[in-house]
Amino acid sequence: METKNLLISLCLTLIMLTLFAQSELISKLKYSNHLDVPKIDLSKFAKGVDSIKTDMKQKLATTLNKASDKMYKVDSLMHSASDCGPSSELVHIDELSFSPDSISVPGNLTVNAKVTLDKDLQAPISATVVMQKMFFGHWINIPCTSDNIGSCFYEDVCQLLPNADQPDNTPCPKELSDLDLPCKCPLQKRIYEVKQLQIQIPKPDVNLPLQGQYQVNAQLTLKEEVIGCVDITFTVVQAKK
Length: 241
Prior knowledge:
Elements: H1 2-30, H2 43-68, E1 72-75, E2 80-83, E3 91-99, E4 102-105, E5 107-117, E6 126-135, E7 138-141, E8 153-154, H3 174-177, E9 191-201, E10 212-222, E11 225-238
Antiparallel strand pairs: 1-4, 1-11, 2-11, 3-5, 5-9, 6-7, 6-8, 6-10, 10-11
């Protein structure tokens, strides 16, 4: 609302300055004894516009900084996750849940999940994530940010695994080995299950208010064939201090 008021104020000021310049021109034409076009010094007008632009930039920066300093949380009563793929897919999301009841952003997220692979999966495995936010009754795509949050394309998720470029005999990081999770591809055919997995949620690299309704669709693709799909919906609200 503050940003909207700044824009309205700028428009009104520009209109007033324009009318002032026109009135000065009419006055000089009216009292001039010759037909030469009067010369009007617009330097004051330009300085006024520059001053308004500078003031608006400062106020807009203050507004965005206030937004970036706010804490947010995911409303636990308004989020869900479900497998959106057919039964013939190779990757099945059997279970996916989040906790605690109030998930802070930034903060920690606890995940419980159970995923079944029907066959061994070799690299490259691409992933397409589409994240949308509700704006005035319409879903709008959120672009991919510098920290890979939003609507992003991952050419090969295998390269995101910690031992992707390590020799096969390199031990997996303890965090993954304790959970019996793979640290490089290929991913073996079996059931993967995690309980109470702790994940850090960073503050997205956008200086805008985050509260609102979101929906996410993520698809895994192997050789141009969709092998897995999940839909997630959630609502972000501003945390109370």
